[in-house]
Design a protein that fits this description.
This protein is an alpha+beta fold. It contains nine helices and 17 strands. It has two domains: 229 residues, Antithrombin, Chain I, domain 2, CATH 3.30.497; 128 residues, Roll (Alpha-1-antitrypsin, domain 1).
Length: 387
């Protein structure tokens, strides 16, 4: 799997998602495969040697190709209706000019302690015109960046700074869109939901009739796409996936981005949809997942990130916080990925209405306008809270 310059890394993100999701367990979670890919892709743009080769095996990119792919994808997402994407790098040591130039849309800033380094003029030119006299409190500054980049959906860094970081890279994705047609609020009422533990209890459930064209199946997994009233170029696609009762997220969620050739249309003219109103918010420590996916050199001293800085950096922390909220009016979602690096259909024969009830564990996936890049992927095992 190698990304080709000039082409969006759709396949690489799908592969990362398909490999990562099974390692998240079968409890409640929401993550951003695209956010993880963007954060690691920016780091991979400064990887060299065997470290770069290792990251390319997971991400499909390294070096200049990674920088180009990260920039292209970030700009494409920024043109999507309702979606915003941002990346920032804060460092206490000089970063190479080639690293900064390769990521033209990334904000660069300073961490406290940079005063102890003899920083060249071109580094200061890369730090938003900050000077040694006005380096702010890093925690406060980065928390504020997170709030702004996620439109207030995430209030602070997923993991507080402890002073050991020589470089911190943050990627943020945020989304807010309305359904093309809202769920009638007066039809929302409590319906039974059987969670992954076999317990059944009433949860607030939305309902509406939808056209058959919004529903298909992939290897027995039901996929429902609810159109959004997006603005700009290619608004996001929101899909809900329901597998067999014993199926887990690693098996079910990838059906959301399966190609048209794998889909079977609904054998009905329309469908009566019931869907819980719910919010998912989770924090995921991805370091162990990356190690299990073949990343080793990059996570320990001796890694080669010489394309970022002359200092000997390695990846010490990769943590992501994500949230998705589904309601009658639409969907809101956000994710922040934090990377810390220290040194060392046929015509109907008659009217047929299918009933599709998301009344047991199910998934939700938000894709870009192409319907291919998984921006957010969530799994609801427990019963959503009342209210």
């Amino acid at each position: 799997m190698t990304h080709h310059p000039g082409v969006l890394p759709v396949d690489a993100i799908q592969v990362l998602a398909a490999r990562w999701l099974p390692r998240l367990g079968d409890g409640d979670f929401v993550v951003s495969p695209a956010g993880l890919w963007l954060a690691l892709g920016a780091v991979a743009s400064g990887a060299r040697g065997r470290t770069g080769e290792e990251l390319r095996g997971l991400l499909g990119v390294e070096g200049e190709g990674a920088a180009e792919a990260v920039t292209r994808l970030g700009r494409q997402l920024g043109r999507s209706g309702g979606v915003s994407a941002a990346t920032g790098v804060w460092s206490r040591m000089p970063v190479r000019e080639t690293f900064r130039r390769g990521l033209p849309d990334v904000r660069f800033g300073l961490l406290p302690g940079a005063v102890w380094f003899a920083l060249p003029d071109d580094v200061f030119g890369a730090t938003d015109d900050m000077s040694l006299g006005d380096i702010p409190d890093a925690q406060e500054e980065l928390d504020a960046w997170v709030r702004d980049a996620t439109r207030g959906r995430i209030a602070r860094l997923p993991l507080d700074l402890d002073g050991s970081e020589d470089l911190v890279l943050l990627n943020a994705l945020a989304l807010k869109v309305s359904w093309l047609t809202a769920f009638p609020a007066h039809l929302t009422r409590d319906e039974p939901f059987t969670d992954g533990y076999g317990d059944t209890r009433p949860v607030p459930t939305m309902r509406r009739r939808i056209p058959a064209g919004w529903v298909w199946s992939v290897d027995g997994i039901t996929v429902v796409e609810l159109p959004c009233a997006g603005e700009g170029e290619g608004g996001p696609r929101v899909r809900f996936v329901l597998g067999q009762p014993e199926a887990g997220p690693g098996e079910v969620l990838p059906a959301a981005w399966a190609g048209a050739g794998e889909r079977r249309p609904l054998a009905a003219e329309s469908a009566d949809l019931t869907l819980p109103r719910f919010t998912l918010r989770t924090k995921t420590d991805a370091i162990e997942h990356l190690a299990a996916l073949g990343i080793g050199r990059a996570l320990r001293p001796g890694a080669d990130f010489s394309g970022i800085s002359a200092a000997d950096l390695y990846i010490d922390t990769v943590v992501q916080e994500a949230v998705v909220e589904i309601a009658e009016e639409g969907v809101e979602a956000a994710a922040v990925t934090q990377v810390a690096m220290p040194r060392s259909a046929a015509r109907p024969r008659h009217q047929v209405v299918e009933r599709i009830a998301f009344d047991r564990p199910f998934g939700v996936v938000v894709l870009d306008g192409s319907g291919e890049v998984p921006l957010f992927a969530g799994w609801r095992r427990s019963a959503p809270a009342a209210g």
